[in-house]
# Entry
Amino acid sequence: MKTRHAATEPGPVFRIGLALLLFAITAGLALALLAEPVAPGVAGQVEAALGDSGAKNHVTAVLLNFRGYDTLLELAVLTSALVGVWALGVAPDIKETTPSPVLLGMNSVLIPLAPLFCAYLLWAGASRPGGAFQAGAVLAAAAVLYNISCRRPELRLPSAPLRPGIVIGLGVFIATGFGVMGGGRAFMEYPAGLAGGLILLIETAATLSIALILASLFVGGRPEGEP
Amino acid sequence: MSSGILFACGGLGLLAIGIWALVLRAHLIRKVLAINVMGSGAFLLLVGAGSMGEAGVDPVPQAMVITGIVVAISATALALALVLRLANATGKPALPEDRERDLMDSEER
Amino acid sequence: MNTGQALDLLLVLVLLWVAWAALSSRDLFRCIVLFIAFGLVLSMAWVRLGAPDVALAEAAIGAGLAGALLLATWARLPGKTEDSKLDAKGEDDED
# Structure
């Protein structure tokens, strides 16, 4: 039979049941958290191996060296998300609007500052908080600001260098990983003396790719004229 | 009581709030927001539980959470593109079974 | 309970409250703006947890770019009036 019930809001019984279920799950997890003895963790091991990693910031060392596979696959996830968005269609037509003078004034200050701040974050990532993801995000934010204020077609970024730029992070990462394999080392096992420079190289390429991918995700479709 | 466990329990609360909204809200953008809140709760639980020990701050959960934030934004972007596509195709940003429900997208502020 | 822990408790309560408000408001625009605020409060929580790297990433990505994406999607949904499209853009700066 055709019911209309499917279209109505969930009833109070359903809500109470869901609330009870969620409360039970949360309370159970909290109890487990309180009852478990605290494991020692791996902070000590990271500290011990930090000298060989080529970075003085613990988090950067973990991201780019000890657990490099995570970061490599994360770049792959970003790239495939962009491929998915591009597969859905051409970027939606954006009406030409007159941006507010406040936005334009702010942009003239913020957009030139963003690459500088990005370079600082990238360089500081070796020893202080910062790194490729944060730097890439700042650069992407500048691109988004540019995109929402200067939406005239002739001012759009040319799409020709876009695709190599998007895959350069992944490419450099994999190439470096294979490149250090000579001399009996494993994939992505950096030689001790060179690790700092290699990490900086990978991070620079990754920053560029992350910025381009995030900005392209904001545009929400492949550029016009691309197949 | 250290602060780590406080934030871990806060993460559990965020997880519960996120599941609640994910199940009950009909508008797909609200569902995307709920998934993001759930993810933030999981990150908070991870780092909070990682800083419960005596050894100080553990960098491995932090690196995993940075990775997770970037993966979450790419998944969000893909989900929003799909929502937009669905809304343009059917006229309503909701799943087929929720189409008659109150989407709570009023224009007045 | 010392001052730092009281501050942490307050931060967690604000975080839960903002999350609840962001997911239950009737106005979708307000939901998205509250979600951006949620990202900023969360990045303060990362600082309190001793994770400044995560705080930077959260403020730049979780609050800035995600907010811009959500607002852009919201403005492009069918059935929006023209003037509500215009004021939807332009709140993403974190540097």
About this structure: Residues 1-6 of chain A have pLDDT under 50 and may be disordered.
